[in-house]
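Thread: Newbie trying to understand structure tokens

Hi all, I'm a second-year student working on a class project, and my supervisor (Dr. K.) asked me to get a predicted structure for one chain before our next meeting. I've only ever worked with sequences, so writing a 3D structure as a token string is new to me. If someone could post the tokens and maybe explain what I'm looking at, I'd be very grateful. Here's the chain:
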Amino acid sequence: MMALFSGCASVGQEFPVSPIAEIRIGETSKDEVRELFGTPWRVGVENGKRTWTYGHYRYRLIGDPSTRDLLIRFNHQDLVEHFSFNTTDHGGQD
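---
Reply by user tm_fold:
Sure, no problem. This is what the structure looks like when written as tokens:
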């Protein structure tokens, strides 16, 4: 109801951007990722490996949308194997 009156809608959950610089491929564990970003918004599997997604998407009736998403794929030792961050915020910071 609120989104109808304000002209915007949000999906997902906010997450901090600055800790992304602390992620190390082959070193950062699932537990460390959870400490940095909290509980993932979505979890999944890609080619047999666990993925976590942190995402926040804000859409407006007037103006540009604001989106952020962080996808993290873990190896079988529960260490970060790959991650990607995308945003429509060209500053990309908190």
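A couple of things are worth pointing out once you decode it. The chain has a mean pLDDT of 89. Residues 5 and 61 are 10 Å apart (CA to CA). Feel free to ask follow-ups in this thread.
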